């Protein structure tokens, strides 16, 4: 646009100079003067000398004025052209923003001069479309999960009612049998409590706001404590959790929320690790950033699933039963907690080894 305006200005100057040197002081001066004098004599009824005097006064003595008038006229024309183009640009931009608001499927197209803006608007459009798709998919996963949980709740609840009914009806049953029924009822009650808690997690997820209460945390001790607490889950499959840290690391973070992150990652690693395997927990600090890694051996996670593993309500186990997985919120919540600390959480899976890496600023 600026280049076009400069070109038009140069043309205006050239035209103005051409008029001056051609019609007033140049090769066309005599024909132009004769035509003007003839016009004055025939139309304005002036005599020849008066007409020639009028020509001298109007043109020969006022050359700068005529140049200025011609230049102003040309400037007005240029201004009108530029204003028209800007008005058209604003209209096209307004139409493009309306397309964004209306979530139109059409690609946004702008004139070549606005190519940079076209790319940015299309980038925004693509991001909004992706967010809408992700939200829709998450909502669908949530609805599916609620249906599955509701179905699975019936199983332990039916068992609880059945065994309690037997205990109520046969009050004189043998002690051994009664103890067996009570143990089964307790086990089913714990499972029912777990499923109900998952319902509460689903409800709370969109309502929670993460507020950090930071303090200086000895990371070595914290990770060893997390590993020890999971011994009851590790032992049945012959698994082990080993902490390997070569240096003493202290980080400034929210200990309770960070422990929840590590618990979620370790719980996920246990669920998807091979029996009799070792889950390795390591950490290192460099450039004011601390990296904590959880490495487990098991099935390789496909890339398409790995990209979605931190999305809410997404579960690696797509089976209908919820026995092997929760509401699909653990890693999503972990991701939000880590991001609230100004860090990142990533996952990589190759050749049967899966590594979750948490990066936390050491002194954030």
Commentary on this structure:
- The protein is of the alpha+beta class.
- The protein folds into 3 domains: 2-106, no CATH class; 137-205, Helix Hairpins (Orthogonal Bundle), CATH 1.10.287; 215-361, Histidine kinase-like ATPase, C-terminal domain (Heat Shock Protein 90), CATH 3.30.565.10.
- Helices cover 61% and strands 13% of the residues.
- It contains 11 helices and 7 strands.
- It has a 5-stranded mixed sheet.
- A hairpin with a 2-residue loop joins strand 4 (278-286) and strand 5 (289-297).
- Helix 1 (2-24) packs antiparallel against helix 4.
- The longest helix has 55 residues, at 115-169.
- The protein is elongated.
- The two termini are 47 Å apart.
- The model is unreliable at 319-325 (pLDDT under 50).
- It is found in: Membrane.
- One of its GO terms (biological process) is cellular response to phosphate starvation.
- Its EC number is 2.7.13.3.
